[in-house]
Every structure is written in C-alpha cells, then in structure tokens.
C-alpha cells in the first residue's frame, strides 16, 4: 500500500513534466537538492539516538565493574572518578572506528569489527599513556572494563539492529530510492529490494530503458508505465529529474550500457551535489561481502571476486565440531527422544524411526533417520498423490498431506522429527548446518547448477530452514543452498543455528 501511494504521488508530479523529461539529460540539471542529505540522515539519527545513550550507560557500568575489582582502601572510589573519562574516551574510540557509520549499521560483522578495533585501540592508548606518565593502571580494572565495554556495546548494537529491522519490516525508516537500468534488470532489483526490507530502500520510481524485442508493457517511451507497481518516469538519462520529482534519497543503478564510464562519473558528481547516495549493482548473484574487494588502478577499478574455496583445515574442524556437538546433544535430549518414541508407539503401533535413502557429499548415498510422522505405507501412497496433484518439479511438498499421523503433525511443526538425524551427524554423513539432503530421484532431475549442492555435507538445518522452510519454491531453496556452499563461514553457521531456534518455535512453513 505504501509503495502504491508513493508511485501515485510520483505520477501526479510527472504529469506536467513528461515533455521536459524526454528532452533532459543527466548533465543538464545542475540544481542541487539541498534537503536530500538531511532526509537521508533521518533514519540514521533515529538509530544513533538509541545506540549512543546505550554506549554511555555501558561505559559507566564498565567503570563500576572495573572499580569493584579494587578492594583496597579508597581504591574503588578513586577508580570510579574515571567514569567521565571512560565515557568520553569510549565514544571517541567508537567514532574513530566508524562504529556509528551508516554503512556499518546493517552489517553485523562490521559492527563487531568496529567495536573490536575501538577496544584494541583503547588498550593501546592506555598502555602508551601509562608508560609515558608512569601512572600504573590496575590490570584487573582494565581487563574487566574492556570486557564489559565490548560485550555491552555489541549487545547494544544487536538490540538497535533488531529495533531497526522491526521498523523497516513495517515500512518505516526507509530511504526513497530511484531504480535505474534496463527494464528487466530494474524489475529484478525492485524485487530484491522488497525481499530484503532490512536494507531500508523503498523503490518509489524507476528510470528504465525498454527491452529490445519485447511485446510487453516495458516497451516504447515507458513514461506512464510501471514495473511491479513502481512508476516509470523516464529513461536512464532522466534520473536527476526523477530524483527531484519523487524526493528520492538514493539512486540504485543496475548494470546498463548507457550508464557507464564518463556518464556514470558525471552522475556521481551530480548526485554528490544534491546529497543523494548512489548504489551500483554489479549483477553478481549470491556472492557474500567478504569475497568481494576492489582492485584499484589509475583509470579503472576492478571488482575482485575471491574463489569460493575452503581450506582443508576448515572442513576437518567443522566435522569435528559437528560430531562432538551431536554427541552432547543426544545425551541432553535423551528424555525427549524417549517421550517421542512412546508417543509414536501409542499412536498407531508402527515403527518409531523412518529410514530414507538420501544423497550426501559428492553424491554418496546414506540412510537418513527421522522419527516416523506418516503412516507405515506412506511411500506406497506417494505415487497416487503425485498423480492426483498432477505434480511436476523436483520437490514434492503438500500442505495437509493425508499420510501424516496425529503425532506426526506436531513433530513436523516443531521439527522434532529431525532429531534422530543427530545420529547421521555423529556418523559423519551429515552436518549440523548445510544444504537440505536430497532424495536420489530429486538428484536425477538436477540441472548442472543444482549439482553444486553436493559439494558439502547436507545439514540438519540451513538457510532454507530459517528462510521459510517448505513455503519456499524449489528455485528459492536452490539459490539459498548455493549461496551457503559458495559463502560458507564459521560465523555464518553460528548465525544459522541461532536463527533455527526462532524458526522452529514459530513453526511456520513446516508441513
């Protein structure tokens, strides 16, 4: 609804401007948008109004905690006198480490690095000052203070990011964006921006060139048309007029031959004068930030994409951690496993475990264990269901599958039926985190891209589990799995495990 309203407003402003938009060019409109930078900073100011007071409180608590370690007569009071100094110094260190920078707010790893840099720099400064002034700072005070500062400031940022995520999921605190490029690229960018609302970019207008040979609505002049309910108000060379008409704060450019080289450079200059941000999509799918870097030169900067290779040590460490964790978890949840076993036996008297042939790393087959959630002859009934549903595709998913038992529905909703897969993890056939283990008949239908999923061990949970579970289409599941394979990291696995807890308790998408 909000997007449609923005589109209608842009269209109404455009009615009297359409002839001029056809004649205008990027370099012909020098009038800067003086309010652009102020509007763009609005969400950032709201974020800082929450995180800075939290950092001040953390610094005060850190000083108190450090002072409590000093039990000598008057020592605690003397160290408490440093509270104002610690507060000011910590805020300056965070600022110098760009912990308050707008670009780092939505990237959790960058926030962690910024706080870590501030802490290391602070310890270094204290060490230099203590050496130069011969003033001895108690190591216990320094250790506790720094530990509280780091843990507290990281927690404050996690809380502020959660607040920002909630606001942006409600359509608030977003920057108005003009999307520029060829019509099909613009459509993909608009869909991506809407799917990732946390980035805080609200498409309000598009400047698009038609797709050659298309007979759809994205041909001709395109002014007055729309792409996914976003008004098209000009060609790519009308971007400055679109920014002015729709009071945009960001311009997002898809790869476009008419916006490259000198033209893109002049657009950068013009947007800089207006306080408007410029984002350029390189057209690379599912490559995580750590794998991207800029290789500069005097005339042309190149985007370097690191190979998605993992050292052998990482694979060995991941396998060892998986097995140890699986063993500990099996011991901890033994009472739950016993209770589920009794419930299944009392429900229909059938077998407790369900073994199914799955395909693992490098195409090796293995038997995957699950608690049985369907009637004993579920596999025999599958063919009839496939024909009745006229199913075509790789994955078979059916809401309210008639083969599911009463107990099985509950087990599936909260993924309790997956717990026996800890045995597969213990045996080294699966991992705690990884792509979904496919069936052999699914692998037989794989296209070359999908086979890349088999380069790593399948997992009990993964990006597919925390991003929608069975509500996802095959294409969405495949894209998430390929993203995991190409961009694996230990922190990424930890993040997925934390998100899995929330996804399981919500119970959505499980059937």
Automatic annotation (TrEMBL):
Subcellular location: Membrane
Membrane topology, from the record: Multi-pass membrane protein
Keyword Membrane in annotation: yes
Name this polypeptide is given: Putative glycosyltransferase
Transmembrane segments: 47-70, 76-94, 114-134, 140-160, 324-346
Xref: InterPro entries: Bact_transf, EPS_sugar_tfrase
The family this protein is said to belong to: Belongs to the bacterial sugar transferase family.
One MF term in the entry's GO annotations: phosphotransferase activity, for other substituted phosphate groups
One matching Pfam family: Bac_transf
Major location (coarse): membrane
Keyword annotations of the record: Membrane, Transferase, Transmembrane, Transmembrane helix
Any single GO CC term annotated in Swiss-Prot or TrEMBL for this entry: membrane
Domain Bacterial sugar transferase: 318-505
Top-rank lineage group of the source organism: Bacteria
